[in-house]
Amino acid sequence: MTFQYEPVRRLPNMQDTGPNELAARDAAKIKLRGVFGLRGYDRAETPILEQTELYIRKSGGGLSSRLYDFSEPGGFDVSLRPEFTSAILRHAADNGDIDGPVRLMYDGPVFRYADFGDEDGDKTRQFTQLGAELIGLPAASADGEIIAMALEGLEALGIDGARIVVGHVGVVLAALTEFNLSERAKLFLISNIADLKNGQIDEVTEKAAALGFITDVKIDDAQAAADRERLASTIEQVIAEGIGVQLGRNTGSRTPEEIIARLTRKMSQADNPDDFKRALEMLSQLARVNGAASDALAAGRNVLQEAGISSDLIGNLDEILSAALVEGVPGDRISIDFGMARGIAYYTGVLFDIYEDAGASETLGGGGRYDGLTRALGYNRDVPALGFALNLDVVIASLGDTPVSVDDLTLVSPTESGSVNAAIENARELRASGKRAAVNFQNSGSLSSNKQTDGQGT
Amino acid sequence: MSNLRFALPSTGALFDGTNNLLADCGLGIRRANSRRYTADIPALPGVDVLFQRQSDITIEIDGGSADIGVVGLDRYYESRLERGDTVLLHDGLGFGESKLVIAVPDSWLDVTSMTDLAEIALEFRAKGRDLRIATKYERLVKRFLNQNDVNYVSMIHVSGGLEAAPVMGYADIVADITATGTTLRENGLRILVDGIVIQSQSVIVGNGRALANDPEKLGLARQILEKIEASLRAGKYQRVTGDIQGETEDEVARQIMTKSELSGLDGPTISSVHTRKKNNWYTVQVLVRKTDLSAAVSHFRDMGGIGIAANDVQYVYRDRCEAYDRLVENLKPFSESGE
After folding, report:
1. Which domain holds residue B255?
2. What's the gap in Å between the CA of B131 and the closest CA on chain A?
3. Sheet strand arrangement including B86-90
4. Is the CB of residue B110 less than 8 Å away from at least one CB of chain A?
5. Testing the interface with B: which of A116, A211, A220, A268 to mutate, by most B Cβ within 10 A?
6. Are residues A251 and A155 in the same domain?
7. Is A30 in the same domain as A128?
8. Residues of chain B with pLDDT under 50
9. Which has the minimum average pLDDT: A74-78, A125-129, A443-447?
10. Same-domain pairing of B41 and B67
């Protein structure tokens, strides 16, 4: 009895790449490397496999929940890389280049898991990124350089009308800082910006109430009173009897001192619900501001002024747009979206997404500024840096079926050559002259074939 | 003849729930004794019942050693192979309702939300160790934690009684299934306000490849689904009958149907009552939702109705079996692939 194996299928949402697609990808890589190289960017390559830690240090849940992470045979917790930026930055730092300016570019596969029900659930989980990082330059002109270069690259590939949508985390963060909020409250608001952009302020308010940021909306009074009572009596007991026994039957792996210390800290940093609500309302307004650059900038300034905040905060965004214009980016290809959200939490300044045209929904790529990432990665200072990456698979798909020229293959027939050996010799001569040639060994036993060569495209 | 292998949970709430549901459907299980792990359904020859550990059922169906089975939705999502052979046949049997939650020691007064937990994980990290979480649902829990920025965690796999883990010291917090939260509370644990990983209840899953390529198995699965669907639907309805006086049958019908939610699934059934006196009494019969029962009775009374009675119904069939239609849809990839 023989056992019939089933074919081993590819993993869900993973793809093979055939000769035509690979040729198109290679051609695109060469063109882009050429364009970026002219601007002084050099190539770097980093491992596909890294310690998971590299990616969770400051990436936020949007990316860390999409990691392909596992234990490797040497005992390390590792992940397939979901992006290049962290590793490229480390590469620059390890080479003593951290203060820059350094211009680096890279390309290769990245891996991001997404459940089928999730936002990116239908996308390929392995895709090819090609990008660049500009490390060590804070000026708005560096941002302009990166934006312009991204568009130049696409133009070199034949995508002439690409649009850039620009946002700015720095503006949003600075605006929130005016409300005297805790880090925790600011993080909550930033991470809900996508919902606010969609007008779901009620849902976000409800969530904020559940987490205790807003105390007069939808709160279970009895529960709150019980909590307060318990808290008060616990603290009383702790003070009266010394820290220890009364916290409950067990405090697990944390000491009562740790719990009380953090509780005190949390209570002293508690947000004023009115400040929080004003910040929420401001952000909900700001997140919905988008459109042509000059209109959106004016509308954004309005929102800030109405909230009693200096509209100068938007100045940096204005400078970045001017820098992009100087670099030759046509003004009508840039629009602004203050509600732009990103799954990767390390951005600190400008953010942008690139689209094939005004109507496209899938991004060709995007980027942004991440001035605090070096410190998060363990280096002793913040280094200004920004970068972008194109999703080459999407870029190539948007080029359509542009034929990539691959030279014809000549199949040399042994019957026509007289013998297998003669055919091999013929093929070698053809290759020596730069032609693609292979022996059609299938023909070696068949004298009925009278084909001499068989030109066959791939 | 290929029998349909029907895997059922061997213990716990899902065992009781499944037994009761099948009995209500007229598909009672016959088991020689409670230690036997196989049984049959006398009303449905051709079905082999296999009692299995709930945590194994999805894996067995994925691997083809059982054809269909009853599991908790949480268990299904935890163990299934993504885009594997297992498909959802019925998405809610109405028992085994529970949720998978993240709970911390009640004494951690400073930790109420996932954001707090993310900070605690960082604090642990700063001290050189990971936050340890005891769970039977590593896959679902890890993803949920990561989505909430709780990144530095070690998953401690525990197969039973994990509520005790923090006290005993082999984990810091737990992620466990709970229906009411009582067991967690009694063990000094508190659920985080936004710590719900998944809401679950019992479902039926099946091996799409096996069903798509075996008409006999598919036929048996269909009969089970039809009965369950009709029985679950019947549980929501009662049949109300009463005698009503009226000029004509149409006149009675018109009055009944002034309230659409009280006029039955498709309309009332009306028949003449043949008495010796005047012959203008009609018996009216309608199916109403249980929640509409008292409104229906009032409506009958307002029309002068007498002899009003309400009964449970055992099955309510619609023109199509929705679960079966969905199954046929779900099986398409398996039959079209020609594998």
Report:
1. 237-312
2. 9
3. B38-40, B47-52, B4-9, B68-72, B202-207, B86-90
4. yes
5. A211
6. no
7. yes
8. 337-339
9. A443-447
10. yes
